[in-house]
Amino acid sequence: MPVMNRVALVAFAALACSPTDDTVTDTGNQRTLPRDVHSYAQPDSARVTHVSLDLTPDFAAKRLRGTARLTIARAASADSVVLDVRDLTITSITSSRGDTLGFKIGAAREFLGSRLAIALPARDSTQAQSDTIVIAYETAPTAAAVQWLAPQQTAGKKLPFLFTQGQAVLTRTWVPTQDSPGIRQTYDATIHAPAGMRAVMSAENLSKADEKDSAGLSVFRFRMANPIPPYLFALAVGDIAFRSIGSNTGVYAEPSVVERAAAEFSEVDAMMAAAEKLYGPYRWKRYDILVLPPSFPFGGMENPMLTFATPTILAGDRSLVSLVAHELAHSWSGNLVTNATWDDFWINEGFTTYIEARIMEELRGKPYADMLRQLGQQDMQDAVTELDSADTHLKLNLAGRDPDDGLTDIAYEKGSAFLQTIESVVGRTRLDQYLRGYFDRNAFKPMTTEWLLEDIKASLLTPAEIERVKPDAWINGAGIPTNAPVVRSNALAAVDSQVARWNGGTAASALQAAKWSTQEWLHFLRALPDTVPNARLAELDSQFRLSSSGNAEILGQWLLIAIRNKYEPAFPALARFLTSQGRRKFLTPLYTEMMKTPWGTTMARDIYRRARPTYHSVATGTIDKIVLAPGG
Ligand code: BES
Ligand code: ZN
What we know:
This protein is an alpha+beta fold. The chain has 4 domains: 9-142 and 160-228, tricorn interacting facor f3 domain (Immunoglobulin-like, Sandwich), CATH 2.60.40; 240-331, Zincin-like, CATH 3.30.2010.30; 340-476, Neutral Protease Domain 2 (Neutral Protease, domain 2); 490-628, Alpha Horseshoe (Serine Threonine Protein Phosphatase 5, Tetratricopeptide repeat), CATH 1.25.40. Helix content is 37%, strand content 20%. It is built from 19 helices and 23 strands. The strands form 6 sheets. Strands 6-9-4-3-12-15-14 form a 7-stranded mixed sheet, with no helix packed on it. A 5-stranded mixed sheet has the order 17-18-19-21-20. A 4-stranded antiparallel sheet has the order 10-11-16-13, with no helix packed on it. The radius of gyration is 25 Å and the shape is globular.
């Protein structure tokens, strides 16, 4: 063996395995990972370091078919590797030499799927402490991560479309791997798509123009060279066009949507500059945004290099693009430094919500950012009112539950309020400096709440400041600690005066609302009393055309009021809204409100019966419980 190779091999073995305790250590992580209750993996014994996919979507059968070639770092004593799988059909598992490997799939558990244990071949002396295994498999038509859209569900209406949604534990329904956010993996992929369609992924696009395989399918190639948590693996295939926005930014969308999207997101370069100035270099080369068909169940998903976004943020006036600032911010908080388990989810979303407002402050100024912050504080208060006390802690305990249960405004807004509290005590300069160092020191590593707490106490706060911030109360206590700074936006205070006038009987035509932004409108609508006479709603509607608003946030808020007050003139718009988009954040409150009365229940069931086939499983999982639950 040439000297260089031997040196490299020994170095790799030392990194991958500590000889004293016979465990695999994550090369990027010096600390022992806590156990992830949402994964079967035993990464101390054998862990996946790289995934190489070769997949062909079959749109007629709604299946992805192909192979996953996994690179595995193993401890000396490990004779098997454990993966997470859910609803996958495994055809064979072989070693890189083609030998068949034995495997066993355990019983399926709700959310978690099954444990897949694969026997690893005995190691011979020529092998490094890493193995390659090849899994031939196909996904189920019902795979929770994958939505297969009929042409009717797309803007173009001609070609089908597919996209995946990995977070939190859905990647295991389309990729057999260790599906835990603490187990980072690089990946590459070859995707074979029908003629006329384009594949995009959360990775660098290495496709050559017009490459075809032997079956005549278009070939697309991708590589993600940074180790990422598997919930960020993402794929979309459809009639997808591209428009460049800047030197390393652009927009993908269906051809009829792409120009509108490029105009809406024209500030992305400015957002990038603001984020880099505050938190250090962007480490993912390109930043593109894929605008999906309207059934995408989230507002946005921070898939690296390629944010996935709902078309409902295309308001035409850039008024909802703070969502892009949010997903871009995840390029630091979430994708660089990642919650080690879903109990630490606030480390992803709380930091990101804080940074989102900071980016928007750079772009639009403090008065604008303060509107966002105050609306967020209201969401936070609502969450505290609605949730069980234990679910209002930042550090959660989601054992035995769907990690989606942690997706509340506690993670987002209480998390952000915690950072705002630190800022109020140490000042921006010191917090910014700390955060910049935090991202550098922990880049491409998992983070637990406990490690973070320790680090803040050791490297940011003085003992006196710890007394003032009370980090333990924020993290392990219920509700909102009293030291949370209260944001008072002047613009929203002015809206409150208009609400008071309106409540006092002032006509809609006399309200000073002509120049209101989306955020001012949202505040106004949220501040209206629970009960408003129909005549007064009609007045507002005819003055401000709320039922035909093209702004999904304003429309959603207005329709909630319409249901509450049985304001029937808005019901056609309600049915249209619920059957034309599938963003869960809009669906949940509207169906919930309808289910509160017998007439509303009838309406909800009627609309849902028509709409359900168009929603993603993430949305139906939630709405089934609201509309179809026995007694509901
Ligand atoms: N990462 C989240 C979406 C998510 C969280 C999906 C947990 C699945 C499980 C994303 O960054 C997000 O927070 N999206 C928000 C928008 C944001 C502006 C609050 C959404 O989709 O509404
Ligand atoms: Zn987020």
